[in-house]
Specification:
It is a single chain. The protein has 673 residues and is α/β, with parallel strands linked by helices. It folds into three domains: 177 residues, Substrate Binding Domain Of Dnak, Chain:A, Domain 2 (Up-down Bundle); 145 residues, Rossmann fold (3-Layer(aba) Sandwich), CATH 3.40.50.2030; 218 residues, Rossmann fold. It contains 24 helices and 17 strands. Helix 4 packs antiparallel against helix 8, helix 4 crosses helix 21 and helix 10 crosses helix 14. The longest helix has 35 residues.
Amino acid sequence: MAEAKEKKKKEYNWNEFSICETTVMMLKKAAEDGVETAFVRAAEMKPCPIGADSACCKHCSMGPCRLNPKDPYSRTGVCGATIDTIAARNFARMVASGAAAHTDHGMSMLDIFREVVHGTIKDYKIKDEVKLREVAKSIGIEVEIKKKVKRDGREVEVKEPRDTLEIAKELCEELEKTYTQVEGEIPFVKRVPPKTVETWRKLGIVPRGSMREIMELMHRTHIGVDQHYENIVRQCSRTALSDGWGGSMVATEISDILYGTPKPLVAPVNMGALKEDHVNIIVHGHEPNLFESMIDSVNDPKLIEKAKEAGAAGINLTGMCCSGTEVLSRHGVPHVGNFMSTEAVLVTGAVDAMAVDVQCIKQGLATVAKCYGTYLFTTNPRCWIEGAEHIELDEKNPRECTDKIVEKAIERFKSKRPEKIVIPQRVDMGVHGFSHEYINYMLGGTFRASYKPLNENIINGKIRGVAGVVGCTNPRVRHDWVHVELVKELIKHDVLVVQTGCSQIALAKAGLLKPDAAVLAGDGLAEVCETVGMPPVLGCGSCVDNSRILIACAEIVKTGGLGESIADLPAAGAAPEWMSEKAISIGHYFVASGLYTVFGVTFPAIKGTKFYKHLFEELEELGLGKWGFAEDPIEMAHMMIAHIDKKREALGITGPRERKLFDMADRRALDVV
C-alpha cells in the first residue's frame, strides 16, 4: 500500500464508528492496510463550532465575520449583520444549493425525456404508459379525445385514448415550466391539497419556476440585500417547494415513465452481494440513466463471454447510494451499502470498477480505489474527480460508455486484482419498491385502489400516524445507529414508517424491511401489516423520491377524514443523520408543505435566536410545518409521536374507537334517513 498516507497509526474502537458489521470489518482491514477513510478523517478533524452553529459569515471580503455562539447578540458582522441575518443567509444558501442539485437532476431527466419522445434518443423508451397518462392527467393535460360515431343509426359522442406520443410531448412542454417559468405557478402545484395551496398563496410562497426561485434566493443572500430573517425564510420556502413539488418530483415521475414504476420485490443488501469469482461492478450516484445502460451492458452476451474468457464466472452488477436504491426498488439489483460505506466496500479488493455520476461522491474514493487497484470512472460532465478516469456518458449512445467500463473491469479482474480478496459474507434480504401507485393498489386492489384503508386505520387508531425517515449517513454519529433506533421506536408505537435514500439501506441491513419485522411493531400496526402482508417500514427509493411521500400526503388529504391540509395530518418527518445541503432543502420543503421535520447530528442555527424561533415555532403558527432537532433517536421518536398525537387530538381521533357488534335494539336506535 505504497500509495497510502504515511502517518502514525492510531487505535480506534471501530464498533463505535458503525453498527454495520460489514463496514466495521472493512474499516479494520483498511487500518491494517494503512488506508484512510472518511470515518478516520472525521475522528481526527473536529467540526468548527462557530460554523456548525452558523455563526460565521464569509459572503464578502470584509470578513469572514465570526460571532460568539454563546452570546450571539453581543456583536454583529462588519456590515452590521446580526446573527439572525447571518444564520438565515447561510441556511438559505444551503436550501438554494440543495434545491439546485435536485432541480438539475430533474432537468437532466426531462432533457432525456424530450429527446426520447422526439426520437433522437433510441436506447431509452417509454416503459410505463399508464404512469405517463396519470401524470399528464394530474396537471390538466387531456389524455382522451372526443369523437362522434354512429351507433344504432344515431350519432353519439365517445372518448378514445389520445396518442401516447402526443401526450408525452405536451407533458414535456408543460413540465419545462417547472424550471423556466418566471410568473405563475409550477405545474405540480395542481397536485397539492387546495387548503395547503391557499396557505402558500396567502404567504406568497407558491413557486413560479425553479430557476427564478434559486436565482432570487442567491441574490437576496448577497451582502447588502435581504437583511430580515423572516423575509429570507419566506424565499427559502418558495425555493424549497420548487424542489419538492418541482425538480425532485419531475425526476421521479420521468424516471418511472422511462424505466418503469417500482413495485415491491425482494432484493439483497450488503457487501455479501459481491462475488469473488465474478467481475464486480458498482454504480454509485443519483441519476438512473448510467445504471439503466449498465444493466444492458452487463447482460450483453459478448461481454459476458469476454468475462468468462478472463476466468470469471460472469459479471456481477451492484449499486450504492441513491442510484443504487433506485434500481434496487425498480429492478431488484443488489445494493452493497449506503453513503458512509462507499469507501469501505473498495477495501474488499473485490470491486473491479466503480462508475459514478453526481452527488454524494467522496473525493476520497479515488485514493482508496488506487490503493486496491480498482478502476474509478466518472461519467458525468458535472462531476470529475482528480485521480479518476473520465468516460463520459452520452445519452444518445450510452453503451459506448458503459461497455467500455465493463471491458476495463474485466481487464482488472484478469490481471490487476490484489492477491487477498475479503468479502464479508452477509446479505440482508428485504422488500423494496413501494411507489405511491403500488401503495394505492396494495390497499384497495385493481378496481378499488384507494388510500381509504390507510386513512380508516389511522382514524380508528390502529396506525397512530405516518413518519418519513429519510436521508444520509454521517460519520459525526455512529453510522446507521440513529436511523435504526429511531425507526424501531416509531413502529413500536404504531407509527407506519416510509423511507428513502441511505436511511432505507440502513433499515434493510437491520432487517426492518421484511414483513416479519411486524413483530417489533405495536399491536395495531402489526395487525395492519399482517393483514396486508407488508413490512412496517416501506422503502420508496432514492433522495428525489421523497416526492413520492409528498404525493402520498396529498392523497391522504384527498381521501378524506384527516383534515383539509397537509398540515392537519398526524405525520412527521426526520433526517437523523443528515449531512448535505440537499437534506436541508428536503427538510424545508417538508416543513413548507406542512410537516413537522426533525433533524439530528447538528442544526445550522443557535437556539434562543429569533431565527431559530421562527423555524421551530413561528412557521407552524403561519399554517406551515416546523423544524425540530434532537441527537438521541429515542428523544427524536417521542418528539415526532407527540406531534402526531397533537394532530390526532386536533382532528378528534384520539384513542382507539370501540369496535361493537350491533344488536337489533342498537339498529332500531340508529337515526337513518
